[in-house]
Amino acid sequence: MTNHDVHNTLPPKTCSVDRLVTMEEDVNKVLEGKKTATRRNGRYADVGEIMELKDKKFKVDRVYSQSLGELTDEHAKQEGFDTVEEYKQSILSYHPGMPWLPQMRVWVHEFSPVSE
Fold it and tell me: CDD domains attached here (predicted)?
């Protein structure tokens, strides 16, 4: 699978959209507009699903697979960090003992605020 939108070939979700962004620091980054994507080891949402954080709604715009080795500083900025290294250190601090393998694939969930 590549970085392209592959709506018709997405595997079943492994979790629910309400578990997509749960850490307080990340929730605040989303609410402040500093985080517009999250990467997970499973697929948590379908395109078009709505995530609600503190009474604010966000629509999932894209879902695609990406390897950790493909990450750029621009991707890190989507996550609310300045560099891939900052993002990497944050992830590794949440998951002690987890290796950072360039070939490891994750699911990218990009989202945007729903204007009401």
Answer: ASCH_yqfb_like
The pLDDT tens digits for 76-112 are 999 999 999 999 999 999 888 989 999 999 999 999 9
Report the alpha-carbon distance of residue 44 to residue 12 in Å, rounded.
9
**Closest C-alpha among 54, 61, 58, 71 to residue 106:** 71
Determine the number of helices (DSSP H) and then strands (DSSP E) in the chain. 3, 4
β-strand pairing of 50-53 with 56-67:
antiparallel
pLDDT value of residue 8 = 56
Name the 3-class secondary structure at 40: strand
Average pLDDT value for residue range 41-54: 96
* Mean pLDDT of all residues in 65-86: 97
| Element holding 2 (H helix, E strand) | none
Compute the distance between CA of residue 80 and CA of residue 36 in angstroms, rounded to an integer: 8
Cα–Cα distance for residue pair 23/1, rounded to 1 Å: 28
